[in-house]
Write a structure and sequence with these properties.
Oligomer: single chain
Strand order of the largest sheet: 1-2-10-7-8-9
Largest sheet: 6 strands, mixed
Order of helices and strands: HEEHEHEHEHEHEHEHHHEHHEH
Shape: globular
Helix content: 40-55%
Strand content: 15-25%
Radius of gyration: 18 Å
CATH architecture of the largest domain: 3-Layer(aba) Sandwich
């Protein structure tokens, strides 16, 4: 599968009236790097994460049945689909796993969607969602393994290139891989795109290593947003061509990044949202001197009590 820049430009025109054009923060000599660092503040997006882009593109690029839409989510995708559905007057049912944070479930419900607990892990919630779709005829909005979702997420890179400085490398957190598929497709052949996954949740790393999608075990502090068991074929096909490599970070490094973002910038980031920065500050990704590095900060739906524990 190939996603083109024209696909992403068309999606941006489609969703622009409904999403925020999130700002870019440019730093020099920060995060242990002597060169410039550009942060795309996508956590400021509606519903708290980049996923609102893919949700709107999916809903606006296909016909929605009377049964509405359904989605399985660790939290952020569900919040995004719920928000988009509410704005467009569509009924939504969201299936979440038991590990989803109360903060994310509260965001989903605040947008009027029906929330169903679909099992212990994300894969269980996806199975429950698939059964509901088969029975009801609702439109399934997949969090990553769908072209409309990937293309929608790629609009973040389009804006970043227009609003920010020239970049050599971009660091992007990976759960199922929808975000990095879109971002890497936008910058293919022009900017190096590096995925970042927790050591305990490495679906894309494992797929690239194995030469195809494989199931992985999930055990990470970021599992509620970066906890996909398998990337699926579409993500793998895009990323094997467009992604340079995947860097792995520890849970401790992710917490350190959350702590730094709060301490120095007063940014309340969830673990998955801080993972890309964790690669830079921990040395999991080592830029060359003067390299122009971009870091996508992708999600802010964090339990404030938990953040207070980490920041103290």
């Amino acid at each position: 599968m190939t996603i083109t820049r024209a696909d992403i430009e068309a999606a941006h025109a489609r969703i622009a009236p409904h999403v925020r054009r999130t700002p870019v923060l440019n730093q020099a000599g920060a995060f242990g790097h002597d060169g410039p660092v550009s942060l795309k503040l996508e956590f400021l997006q509606h519903a708290g994460s980049f996923k609102t882009r893919g949700a709107f593109n999916a809903l606006l690029s296909q016909e929605v049945p009377s049964a509405g839409v359904a989605a399985a989510s660790g939290g952020n995708h569900g919040a995004a689909v719920a928000y988009a559905a509410k704005q467009l007057g569509v009924k939504a049912r969201i299936f979440v796993p038991e590990i989803s944070s109360p903060a994310k479930i509260a965001v989903i419900r605040s947008h009027g969607a029906e929330v169903m607990i679909g099992g212990a892990r994300y894969a269980d919630a996806q199975d429950a969602c698939d059964r509901y779709v088969a029975e009801s005829g609702a439109l399934r909005i997949h969090p990553f393994a769908a072209a409309s979702t990937m293309i929608g997420q790629g609009t973040a890179a389009l804006e970043w290139e227009q609003d920010g400085p020239a970049l050599d490398t971009v660091l992007v957190a990976v759960g199922g891989g929808g975000l990095i598929s879109g971002v890497a497709s936008w910058w293919a052949g022009r900017v190096k795109v590096v995925g970042v996954e927790p050591e305990g949740s490495r679906a894309l790393h494992a797929a690239l290593e194995a030469g195809g999608p494989v199931d992985v075990e999930i055990d990470s502090v970021a599992a509620d947003s970066l906890g996909a068991k398998n990337t699926g074929d579409l993500v793998y096909e895009v990323c094997r061509e467009a992604v340079d490599h995947v860097a792995l970070v520890t849970d401790a490094a992710i917490r350190d990044a959350q702590r730094m973002l709060w301490r120095d910038y007063r940014i309340a980031s969830e673990p998955g949202g801080a993972a890309a920065l964790a690669a830079l500050i921990s040395g999991a990704y080592k830029p060359r001197p003067g390299e122009r590095v971009g870091v996508l900060l992708c999600g802010a739906n964090v339990e404030l009590v938990r953040l207070a524990e980490i920041a103290s």
